[in-house]
Amino acid sequence: MYTIYEDFQNVSYTKAKFLSDKSYAYDTVFFVSKFIMKFQKNGLFDLKQNMELFNKYIIDMFNRNPASKGTSNYYLEVLNLLEYANVLEKIDHHMYQIKNWEALRFINERMENAYIFNYLVTYHTFKNDGLLDIYKKICTTDSLKEKEKWIQELNAKISVINVSVQTPGTVWEKLNTKYALTVLNFINKQNYVSRELHVQKEIADIESISVNVKGTKTYDNLPKSNNYLKKFDLSYVKDFLKDYLFIKEEEPETSISKDDVIEINEMTNLKLDLLDLQKDIKEKNTEFTGEQYVENVVRSRNAGAQRRFRNNLFKHTEAKCAICGLSIPELLISSHIKPYSKCEEIYDAVNYENGLLMCPMHDALFESAKYITIDAKDGTIKVKKQYAPFMKSFNLTPKTKMDASLLTAERKHYLEWHNQQFEKTNK
Ligand SMILES: [Zn+2]
Fold first, then answer.
1. What pTM was estimated for this model as a whole?
2. pLDDT tens figures, 255-280
3. How many whole angstroms from 326 Cα to the centroid of ligand 1?
4. To which H or E segment does residue 46 belong?
5. What is the pLDDT of residues 290-311, one digit of tens each?
6. 289 and 174 in one domain?
7. Is residue 47, in this structure, part of any structural domain at all?
8. How much distance in Å is there from the Cα of 361 to the middle of ligand 1?
9. Fewer Cβ neighbours under 10 Å: the N or C end of the chain?
10. Ligand 1 centroid – CA 330 distance (Å)
């Protein structure tokens, strides 16, 4: 088993500047680490370049407007944490080098590992700074008043050790303690602690350790759920951390399937691939700038996500061409209504509602709205004026309609986009 804790022999509050809500939010740590891995070259990366890309990524992952102040904090605060834990080293004011590949790979493996990493960094900081006994007291008393008393004491000690909190009594002083407790309290089933260091009756939950648990907000009216944080495998985390916990009783936990873990990774990798390709197209001025190039590369690199998309279509819709009804499964293509290259958000890229099963001919005609579209209003198949003479060869009549059951609210939304593309060149 990976002995990640050995890397934290020297962590101490005397050099801590990483403590913030973002660096303690395990989802941020997971995404930023994945991002570093993806865009590093020979273990080096440029802070400025990476941050620019990350700010695009953040719209999707954390529901942040890239133009808003503070967005870059998400990235910088995790870098601080990774530097603090000796995973990264700052070479000059904007270059970083990866020092601990093993730790970075560990975090990249699955979201829960980012939490394990955070827990161990905090645990060893407390241990090295002589704060673990106080934390033990917080955990073992049932009285909320008593807990609060020990938290005050913990806070007083942290503010003495932590040189980055120079002014006792400031908000930041309290926040340092609050964040440290949040990460430890969730796994130890302890009470949630407010920004003012008041102990709440509620037990710290997944929401308190995540910046994104409420879901991905969208620029349109679609209700989109968070695809990344649907599941958190607490049993896995507890099993890994069993030597470091302050809880005694073992209660049954629901664990998530291996498939869920794979799905989360697939989605993240797909998102990174889309960004990577958009970057390539923008910077290198490659001749393969077309939509088709992006589609092919994304599909081949993300076979798992593509397979999942296809399986979902077969599961939720009838196994036949949405246009002509051909029902030979092996001939059906899982067609994106809004293609990968145009999906700003991962939700759209993996959402089976943004797809239809089609026979090879209708898939080819429908793709990018080059020849035909499906009217979002009533499902009528519309052929571009210039191709109207081929209608019969297309196996269509002016009355051909898509099955009404496929016209769901979400699919209509994607079809509206398709209709707009269609109209642009319908001359
Ligand atoms: Zn067909």
1. 0.77
2. 677 887 788 788 888 888 887 777 77
3. 6
4. strand 44-46
5. 677 778 888 888 899 999 999 9
6. no
7. yes
8. 6
9. N
10. 13
